[in-house]
Amino acid sequence: MSPISNELILFFLLGLLQGITEPLPISSSGHLMIAQELLGISVGEPHKQLAFATLVNAASLLSVLLIYRSDIFRLAINSTVYLYNKSPDLKSDFDYVKLLLIATIPAGVLGLLLKDILEGHLENIIVVGIALIVTGIFLWLIQNLVGKKKDNQISVIDAIIIGLAQSVALIPGISRSGATVVAAMFKGFTRESALRFSFLLYIPVSIGAVILQIDTLGDILSESSSMLLPYIIAFLSSFIASYLALKWFINVMKKGKLLYFSIYCFVVGPFVILFKYILP
């Protein structure tokens, strides 16, 4: 098989891995590190790895926008109209958008402040293994929770707590969707409302990451036009996998089957640690 074919397969598989794991509460960043560390799979230097992660995250973002398009259109239109006429009927949607923005702040601020620490000390495979176990514990704790709070009952405190949970997911191995869903359900939200807030909250964070990395992506493609096809393949495989995985996850959440993901984390977390540090 030619080197070009191998490269295309590599980018396809990494896009697929990101796409499957991003919506699920099992940490996409952790799985990309596992693939790189244990399987020796890499897309190049650190700046290229970050740009690649941003690219496939953008594909996952597109799938979220597609699945939640009706909620996004409603919130955007009603919030905009509310700014002009202050209609009481539209205030709840305006408040919801405001709370999403508030919940975005902790991860944005901590991400900038702790950037060097996160890159220098936490990008370690043993951290990923431990973090997956922690994720599994919290998913186990909420597996039987059935909240009553709906979208229009979220408070500023709720938004801040969910936002802080999202910032914890800056640690590779801590799932962003898992952390935010866990926080929302601990605060008494229904599974549907917890999931919706979690993935609508993903939108501003992901857009911010894309904006910060767009110059790097442009530089990589300008340096080597041959990277265009692998990047397109990774983007498409990530988008399709994210769309299908999120649709499936929504169905799993409705049935309250988070135990599956908890068990998965309990298996993969210790395996990663054993494989890296104990087994020859």
Into how many domains do the coordinates divide?
1
Model regions low in confidence, pLDDT < 50 over at least 5 residues: none
Order of helices and strands: HHHHHHHHHHHH
Shape: globular
Tell me what portion of residues adopts beta-strand conformation.
under 5%
Per DSSP E runs of 2 or more residues, the count of β-strands stands at: 0
Radius of gyration: 19 Å
Number of helices, where a helix is a run of at least 4 consecutive DSSP H or I residues: 12
Q: How would a textbook summarize the main sheet?
A: none
**What level of helicity do the residues show?**
over 70%
Judged by helices, strands and strand pairing, the structural class is mainly alpha
Termini Cα gap = 30 Å
**Mean residue pLDDT:** 86
Features:
single chain; 12 helices
Describe the structure.
- The chain is an all-alpha fold and 280 residues long.
- It has twelve helices and no strands.
- The mean pLDDT is 86.
- The protein has one domain (3-277).
- The chain has helices at 3-21, 28-38, 46-67, 69-85, 91-113, 115-121, 125-142, 156-168, 176-186, 191-223, 228-255, 259-277.
- Catalyzes the dephosphorylation of undecaprenyl diphosphate (UPP). Confers resistance to bacitracin.
- Keywords: Antibiotic resistance, Cell membrane, Cell shape, Cell wall biogenesis/degradation, Hydrolase, Membrane, Peptidoglycan synthesis, Transmembrane, Transmembrane helix.
- Its main location: membrane.
- It is an enzyme of class 3 (hydrolase).
